[in-house]
Amino acid sequence: MYFLLTMSPTKKNQPLSVLLLENVHTAAVDLFQANHCEVTSLKTALSENELIEKLKYFQVLGIRSKTQITEKVLKSSKHLQAIGCFCIGTNQVDLTNANILGVPVFNAPFSNTRSVAEMVIAEIIMLARQLGDRLREVHEGKWRKVSQECYEVRGKTLGILGYGHIGTQVSLLAESLGMRVRYYDIATKLALGNAYACRTVHDLLTTSDYISIHVPETELTKNMISKNELSSMKKGSYLINASRGSVVDIAALSESLKAGHLAGAAIDVFPSEPEGNSDGFQTELKGLKNVILTPHVGGSTEEAQENIGREVATSLTRFLRVGATTGAVNFPQVEVSPNDRTSRILNVHRNVPGVLKNINRIVGDLGANILGQVLSTDTSIGYLIIDLENDVSEQVKDAVSKLDTSIQTRII
Questions:
Q1: Of the residues 22, 82, 181, 255, which has the fewest C-beta atoms closer than 10 A?
Q2: Among 93, 220, 87, residue whose Cα is nearest residue 161
Q3: What is the model's pLDDT at position 14?
Q4: Comparing C-alpha atoms, which of 266, 270, 298 is closest to residue 117?
Q5: What is the C-alpha end-to-end distance of the chain, expressed in Å?
Q6: Number of C-alpha atoms within 13 angstroms, CB side, residue 79?
Q7: What stretch(es) of the chain map to CATH 3.40.50.720?
Q8: Would you call 292 helix, strand, or coil by DSSP?
Q9: Where in the chain is the domain with CATH 3.30.70.260?
Q10: Dist CA 383 CA 387 (whole Å)
Q11: CA-to-CA distance for 387 and 284, rounded, in angstroms?
Q12: Catalytic residue (one of 36, 296, 310, 321)
């Protein structure tokens, strides 16, 4: 099945063009091509102006964490139908304006959870045994066999800040090592295994030997671990952050480590990160004892990238093929099955009174027979799917797209 876009002139049966940036896994390319899409894949991110120029020729955009989808990009890209973030985070996209302009944004909330969780567990053990320091020393030709301040993790307490997809995976793996698990989340979450829910962040910090952070980047989480929180942590404890760089005050963490209050840290994300692989990266944490620094590689495994590619591409192709928006982070949720016996009209409109009445009037005036209709709304927009008999579907689509309330209308 091919797709007709009605926001701007597009020939029927013309395949959609997909632009993938930042070296998205080939699993996504294969899936798009299997769904009759033309795919252009680039290894790098694009600047705002470069992206605006490039998107003149594409209807679908796939990015990872570096490309910034601003209001200017969205308003300049009249052909854009959907965006896929081939990662967990979506803070690089102006979700509000994407919603207003009728562009759903999909991400991969599950596919790299195991990869990140396994790295966190590895780092807990490395910190407990000071393996990073021993590794570096042997590479430098130094033999420093020590047991002082090196520990087993069995019987120690792991505090998980953010008990979502990754946090729960870390919880289960930690328990299998014999660790006690405590967690805190702003939402009520079901404890897995023997994990214990703390009532406050302070309770978590003061009672844990290790703190592992798994929260999104929001105004609430910016610098949520700073001087006061670090001083609340147990003396000799450890901090692991594989979530977002803005969550931890790096300067305060550096001072806590230098003062000997914390015994070590593992940091995979930073407030400012290079656009691509490069030399000369700087941070206050460089050279500190028992500090593991990695270049945002928590989800960088072959398995995770392949799974992410397949997960996001599947969400996008289901939206393009049948109109399903399940999993979109900024859009009304609609789950529908294919129906090859009808023409399906998809309409995004401003959520104001009378829209459905006007659309149904058009359908009635043209003598169309509605075989199925689904509407879902949020505060800004409504998303309507109508299954019609084929004979007048083009006329209905044209008339609906001309309504003042319509944002995007297409037929599949």
A1: 255
A2: 220
A3: 64
A4: 298
A5: 8
A6: 19
A7: 1-111+302-331, 113-293
A8: strand
A9: 337-412
A10: 14
A11: 59
A12: 296
How many other β-carbons are positioned within 10 Å of the β-carbon of residue 172? Answer: 13
Q: Which of 50, 71, 152, 273 is catalytic?
A: 273
Active-site pick, 244, 318, 349, 410: 244
Mean pLDDT by 10 residues, the chain (412 residues): 36 76 96 96 95 96 95 95 94 96 95 96 98 97 96 98 97 98 96 97 98 94 97 98 96 98 98 86 96 96 96 96 96 90 92 96 92 95 92 92 96 89
Question: From the centroid of its chain, how far is CA 75?
Answer: 22
pTM over 0.85: no
Per residue in 178-208, is it b (16+ CB within 10 Å) or e — as a string? ebbbbbbbeeebeeeeebeebeebeebbebb
SS3 content of the chain, % helix, strand, coil (to 5): 35, 20, 45
DSSP code string of 318-360: HHHHH---TT-SSS--------TTSEEEEEEEE--TTHHHHHH
Q: What is the pLDDT of residue 334?
A: 96
What's the rounded Cα separation, in Å, for the pair 365 and 321? 28
Q: Is 244 considered catalytic here?
A: yes
- Contact between residue 36 and residue 4 where contact means Cβ atoms under 8 Å apart: no
DSSP track, 95-110 = HHHHHHTT--EE--SS
Contact of 159 with 214, CB cutoff 8 Å: no
139 is known as an active-site residue: no
Measured CA to CA, the distance from residue 37 to residue 232 in angstroms comes to 54
Residues 6+ apart with CB under 8 A from 100: 380, 381, 407
Taking a C-beta distance cutoff of 8 angstroms, is the pair 44, 21 a contact? yes
Nearest to 45 by CA among 80, 86, 88, 79: 86
Please confirm, yes or no, whether 273 is among the known catalytic residues.
yes
Class for domain 113-293, per CATH?
Answer: alpha beta
Give Cβ neighbours of residue 372 (< 8 Å, ≥ 6 apart). 339, 342, 385, 386, 387
Output the pLDDT for position 212. Answer: 98
The whole-angstrom separation of Cα 57 and Cα 50 is 12
Q: Cα separation of 253 and 259, whole Å?
A: 10
Q: What contacts 10, CB < 8 A, 6 or more positions away?
A: 4
Query: Domain 337-412 belongs to what topology?
Result: Alpha-Beta Plaits (3.30.70)
